Predict the structure.
Amino acid sequence: MTINFVKYQGTGNDFIMIDDREEKWDIENVTLNARLCDRRFGIGADGLILLRSHPEYDFEMIYFNADGKVGSMCGNGGRCTVKFAHTLGAFQESTTFWAADGLHHAHLDEEGKVHLKMNPPLDIEQGDDYFFMDTGSPHYVQFSEEVADLDVYELGKSIRYNDRFKKVGTNVNFVEKTDTNRLFVRTYERGVEDETFSCGTGVTASVISAALQGMKSPVPVKVMGGELEVSFTEKEGAFEDLYLIGPAQEVFKGQVEI
Ligand SMILES: N[C@H](CCC[C@H](N)C(=O)O)C(=O)O
C-alpha cells in the first residue's frame, strides 16, 4: 500500500504527518510507526502524527514517539499539526483541536508562527535541585550553568532510567538562565531516547519552573533548533493563558510503500 506523508519540523523537532481523516491507519502497528521514524531504515523523524477528524473540534492529533508507541502531548508536534491542518483547510485563523491531554486552542500570527495554548501544568513538584511536572508530558527540569557543554544524552539517560522513572520514563530538560528573562534549554526525550533539537512541552515546563523562581512572561527560549517563546499569566501560583509560540514548517512531501 502507498501512503502519502508530509514531513514537518518545528524548531528542529521533526515529524511525519499523515492525513488520516479516513481512519485507515492501524494505530497498533508499533513496528511500522518505528520503522517510518527510523533515520536509516525509514523516512526519519522524532515522531509520527496522524491528523484525524473530530466530531466536535476542527481535528484530532494522534502522536507517536519515534519508538512507534502512542505518546502523550507533544507541543512542537501540536504546532506542526496546526500548520498542516491549515493547509488542508480545516480552519482559517484560529482552531480548536483534540490531543492526548485534551482540548487545545491555536492560531497563526502574521509571521506564520503558531501560538498553541497549552493546558495548565499538573502535579508540580519542587525538589532541592529540580522541578518535575506534567505539561501534557512528564518533564524533569534541572537548572545548570554552561548547558552548551553538557553531555545531555548521558545525563538525561541516567535520570530517565533511574529507579524512580525507569518504568514510565520522563523527559529531562537542562536549563540555563542566559539573561534576566531568557532561557537556553536542551532536552533528552523519552520515546526517542536521545536528545532532540527542541521539545515544546519541555520548554513549557522549563519556563514554568523559571516563573516559579520569579521569571516574567513572555520568556524567549533558545533551543538547539531555533527560538521559541512561552507566555502566560500567573494568579496565585496558577498558570493560565499558557502559550507556546514558534515556527512550524513543511519540509517535503513524499510517498512510502508500507
Ligand atoms: N517533542 C515533544 C514532546 C514529546 C513527549 C514525548 N517524548 C514523551 O513524553 O514521551 C514536544 O515538543 O513537546
